[in-house]
Write a structure and sequence with these properties.
Layout: H1 19-41, E1 46-54, E2 64-69, E3 74-83, E4 93-101, E5 110-111, E6 117-120, E7 129-131, E8 140-141, E9 146-153, E10 166-173
Antiparallel strand pairs: 1-10, 2-9, 3-7, 3-8, 3-10, 4-5, 4-6, 4-9
Length: 174
């Protein structure tokens, strides 16, 4: 089954509605639904955020770098971070957590990840990208819930003169 364009001559005002026309409309709807279901089950991803975040002036007293309030139900299927540069820092870990809650009250947030996403400045190269492991029992988000990205650890002197403090953050859903 595939989508077939309906000839405008078959839907002229005053012409009778035929079984063939209704069968064609139904066939097109069936094709449409098949494609939607196929995308949903194959892990098609829509990115709810995919962009550069500057960490200039960041400190652990205010560790949240991103908030998102869900406008519809979805499942998170991708969370990744790319560190642009780590020049000037030789050791330590920069650690990210993706969390959700029913509102922005800090005590209600719980992690969505199986484990935090961590960059080791001693071994990870500039422009390293990492994908987090999601906890399948916690990755569903319902309308109105809030997602946030929180940095839970930074290397000593991470935001000194030589560190750009930029990351590429992406959160994907289906």
């Amino acid at each position: 089954m595939s989508f077939l364009t309906i000839d405008p001559n078959t839907i002229k005002v005053g012409d009778p509605i035929t079984k063939d026309l209704l069968d064609l409309i139904k066939s097109n709807f069936d094709d449409h639904e098949l494609r939607i279901n196929s995308l949903a089950t194959s892990g098609g991803t829509v990115f709810i955020f995919n962009g550069d975040i500057s960490l200039v002036g960041f400190n652990l007293s205010n560790p949240v770098i991103f908030y998102y309030k869900a406008r519809q139900d979805f499942s998170i299927n991708d969370f990744r971070v790319q560190l642009f540069t780590k020049q000037g820092i030789a050791t330590g870990n920069l650690v990210f957590d993706l969390q959700k809650a029913s509102n922005t009250n800090d005590s209600n947030f719980s992690t969505v990840l199986s484990s935090s996403l961590s960059f080791n400045f001693a071994t990870d190269a500039d422009y390293s990208e990492k994908a987090a492991s999601l906890n399948p029992s916690l990755n569903d988000v319902v309308t109105g819930q809030v997602l946030r990205v929180k940095i839970t650890n930074i290397p000593t002197n991470a935001f000194g003169n030589n560190f750009s403090g930029n990351i590429l953050l992406s959160i994907g859903a289906q």
